[in-house]
Amino acid sequence: EYIMSTIWHTPFRKDFLILLIISILLASAFSSGLAWIADRYFGQAINGLMGDYGQYDLFMQVRSETLSESRAELDRLISDYLPGTTVKIGPSLVGKTAIFLSLPDELRRRDIFEGLDAILARVPGWSGLSLLIEPRLTISAVHGGAQEMLLGRMADWEEVRFAFRRGGNIEVVLQNPAAQKAVSERAQQVIKEYRLVELRYPTGYTLEDALESGNALTTALQEQAGSGLVRDVTLAGGGDDYQQLMSTLIEMKRFLGYYAAEVTIELTGDQEVRRGAQLALQGTGRPLITGEVPSEGDIIVQINSADSRQAQGIIIRGDSRDVARSESYLLNGDGKIQRFAGMAQVRSRRDELMHMLDESEQLLTQLNQISPEAASLASNALEQVLGYSRLIDKARQAQEEMEAVRAALGADNPMQGSARLDAAVRKIDSASAEMARLGSDIERLRTSVEGLGEVAAQLNGFNNRLSSVAQFLSLGDGIESLLSATRTLGALSEGIAAQKQAVASFAEQMREPLAAVEYWREKVLRFQSEVTDYNQLLALGGAGRERLDDLIMVTDRTVALVAEADPTGISSTLEGLAGNGEGKVNLPGLSAQIGDIRASLPNLRDEEIGRSVAVIEQYVGDQAYAGEKVQLLTDQTLTVSAIKNTIRRESEDQVDVVVLPIGAIQPNLRGEVFRVLGEVRTTIAALSVFVLGILAFLLDHALILSVLKRQARQRVMRGSKWQRMTTRLAGSPYSFGGSIGLIWFVLAFLASGADIPVVGVWGAAGLGLLTGCFFTAMCEKFSPVNEDEIVAGEALGQPFETIMREIVIPAGRPGLMQWLNRRRLVMK
User: Fold this and answer.
1) Is 157 left (phi over 0), alpha (psi -120 to 50) or beta?
2) Top-level CATH class of 57-176?
3) Per-domain residue ranges for the chain?
4) What single DSSP character describes residue 632?
5) DSSP string of 360-418?
6) SS3 sequence of 743-767
7) What distance in Å separates the CA atoms of residue 649 and residue 405, rounded to the nearest whole number?
8) Is-contact 816 696, C-beta < 8 A?
9) What mean pLDDT is predicted for residues 183-202?
10) Taking a C-beta distance cutoff of 8 angstroms, is the pair 306, 344 a contact?
């Protein structure tokens, strides 16, 4: 309190405040100017290295010793792949030369930027490529399984010019720099919609085991998520080369394992057969003899799994087609026949598949040969079915003619009656013949379609087996051809079966009417053979009249029965059989397709397949190490706790669940450089403020603090002990010095734009407080005062401000306070 009153309650306060303000302003101006100069210098240096904002798109480095060759090849590549690109050779540092590339506007698109590494890596001495294109946003550490999804979503944003993948990052090129913040916030929201769930398996799991378990867990999570996203992206990451290699080997093993011949041995005896043991089967060589090595023509089988009763293995020498006998013999460590092991059964899926394809091709050829006859019969039947009503009308006309003949008996003269009879007989003969031909065609069609059905049934049996084979088959592009062929064969077989059923039902439906037609036709033919003269009809009760009455009665009954039938429902089936309907199958083309599939099957012997599988198993089948993981891409449909509960419920082993973001937004290279430069600028300003603050306290404030400490020592404290302690603390020069240091440093930091990384303005306050306290403690050493002169001034009754202006300051160090005091000095 006493110290404060000494300063603030005397006219010297104006001097002190002016000193404080001017020193802060001068320090701030100098520090900010120094920082600005440094910023300009470094900024121009960076622009000289990297070009102005947006000037260049790419930054490439090559070895300096190959610069001429690199430039020549680069010019050639630009001419071929990047026409219009401008090149600038930059400085050389540490044996590497910088090359800046600026692409024309029409080449700034996704496909070009994603292929740049492949193009420019051909340059001799190439040492890497960096992106400079601006404005740009980088999403780093994006899992390969999520990259295409993010690219698809961001490509439609109007602020985005284009986006492309680069390694594990997604680079988003913007339309203008002003959209940087908006796109960054929007991309962050999209990233938060998804997450990467890692299922980490314990030690002892192979990659194959982890993938199988992961598939089961993925299925369970997909069922729980419903329409939500749960996708296995383990093999889409591309980041772990070893895991990618393991995955490829597993697929190759599965592919080869399907074609490998399977050998099953029914074991006999008490001695067990272990995994890895080898057995011999009689092949094309000499008979197997105990104690001898199998000959070159015999078959060697390696056991993959075995129990007390049965063992399974694959052929590692020889071929399944060379197996002569089913007896198998166990080999000892020297490769010699040790004992009888059991009866073996060899199954070659490769041979089965080839046999099925060959049989299918033969059946298609047979089907193609007999289908024209069925098509012709169906076409004839279709024509008659479509004209069925005409046949009925024709039969009715013939019926009416016969009725007219009977009605005119005795009224017509013999010549007229004979002519009327001949016309009626011709009509009824024609009508009955056409009706009978329909029945014959239907019967022939039924027989032909039954033949088609038998071939189709055999074809369907092979197709079902082919379809089951296709579920496990790996033929590359050929698998699609096989699946397409099986679908076509299935549809063909089902179609023929349906046609066969339809024709059989139609034949059954027309059986009674057509039987009546056949009986009618017999009556017509009998009438024609027995009634040859009109006069035979004139005798009442004669044989001719009876034949006429009988024919008319049968005709009436037949026409009525035939008219009740409706054969039009078979029309679509007949059209299909005739080849006029939709969905006609190109049998020669389908047969050729199956032949192509047959030719594309791997042409490997069983021993080649078996040895390849054995080699792969050495690296994959028995690999057990920690760190195997399955990665799932999910949205927010399932909570983390729900995912963990499902995995805990479905998995028998302990599986650790780790949830990771699918990516992180990071600034680009230029932004990072200028951010660092900004920190350098503020740090330089902070260092300058600190140095100037030390000078201000050393030259000016230390002198004032020395005077205040002298007066504090001379002050007499009154009151209680607590009051004296409180007063001493409040009026301590340390409080004053620390406060002035805090105020000076904080204001100078704020005015100059200085900053201390991490601690900020609070660091400036702490630094000022420590500086003030330090100089308060050391002020009498840095700036001692003449005690005798101050005592003399006080003895003369001089006030505090006069003593400071006339005695203390002029005797102190030359500084800002001494310069400002010149205008106040009286005794110069």
Assistant:
1) beta
2) alpha beta
3) 2-42+676-821, 57-176, 207-232+604-666, 262-347, 353-598
4) E
5) HHHHHHHHHHHHHHHHHHHHHHHHHHHTHHHHHHHHHHHHHHHHHHHHTTTTS-HHHHH
6) HHHHHHHHHHCCCCCCCHHHHHHHH
7) 93
8) yes
9) 89
10) no
Q: What is the mean pLDDT of the chain?
A: 75
Under 8 Å CB-to-CB from 15, ≥6 apart: which residues? Answer: 801, 804, 805, 817, 820, 821, 824
- Name the one residue in this structure whose structure tokens are 């300063």: 7
CB 794 within 8 A of CB 803: yes
List pLDDT tens digits, range 210-251. 767 777 888 888 888 888 888 888 766 554 455 566 666 666
Which of 643-647's residues contact partners 24+ apart within 8 Å by CB, and which partners? 643/197, 643/221, 646/217, 646/220, 646/221, 646/224, 647/199, 647/217, 647/221
Confidence at residue 398, expressed as pLDDT on a 0 to 100 scale: 73
Tokens encoding 238: 């591309």
**Per-residue pLDDT tens digits for 724-760:** 555 555 557 888 888 888 888 888 888 888 887 767 7
Q: Quote the CA–CA distance of 755 and 740 in Å, as a whole number.
A: 19
Beta bridge partner(s), residue 88: 100
| Range 39-59 average pLDDT | 73
Task: Calculate mean pLDDT across residues 78-103.
Answer: 91
Q: Which residue reads 């003619």 in tokens?
A: 401
- Per the DSSP assignment, residues forming a β-bridge with 763 are none
Structure-derived torsion over alpha carbons of residues 509, 515, 517, 522, reported in degrees to the nearest 10: 170
The Cβ of residue 106 has, within 10 Å, a number of other Cβ atoms equal to 9
Residue 212's H or E segment, with its range, is helix 207-225
Q: Is residue 93 predicted with pLDDT exceeding 60?
A: yes
What Rg do the C-alpha atoms of the chain give, in angstroms? Answer: 52
Per DSSP, what are the bridge partners of residue 164? 171
Q: Are 732 and 3 in contact (CB under 8 A)?
A: yes
Q: Give me the helices (H) in 87-142, please.
A: 110-114, 116-120
Strand extents, DSSP E, 212-318: 230-232, 262-267, 278-281, 299-306, 310-317
- Phi-psi label, residue 166: left if phi above 0, alpha if psi -120 to 50, beta otherwise: beta
For residue 582, is pLDDT > 50?
no
Q: Coil, strand or helix: which one is 671?
A: helix
Q: Using CA atoms, how far apart are residues 492 and 587, in angstroms rounded to an integer?
A: 9
What does the pLDDT look like over 126-172, one tens digit per residue? 998 988 888 889 999 888 888 888 998 998 899 999 999 988 899 99
Angle at 460 between CA 455 and CA 464, to 5 degrees: 155
The H or E element containing residue 99 is strand 96-102
C-alpha to C-alpha distance for 517 and 521, rounded to whole angstroms = 6
Alpha carbon distance 185, 266 (integer Å): 68
What's residue 389's pLDDT? 60
When pLDDT is averaged across residues 570-587 and rounded to a whole number, the result is: 55
Question: How far apart (Å, rounded) are the C-alpha atoms in residues 291 and 331?
Answer: 9
Angle 790-796-799 (CA atoms, 0-180°, nearest 5)? 70
Query: From the CB of residue 562, how many other CB atoms can be counted at a distance below 10 Å?
Result: 23
Q: How confident is the model at residue 293 (pLDDT cuts 50, 70, 90)?
A: confident
Directed axis angle between helix 787-795 and helix 702-714, to 10°?
60
Percent of the chain with pLDDT strictly greater than 70: 64
Give yes or no for residue 1 having a pLDDT over 50: no
How many C-beta atoms lie closer than 10 Å to residue 165's C-beta?
Answer: 18
| pLDDT at residue number 583 | 44
Query: CA angle, corner 446, sides to 441 and 447, nearest 5?
Result: 100
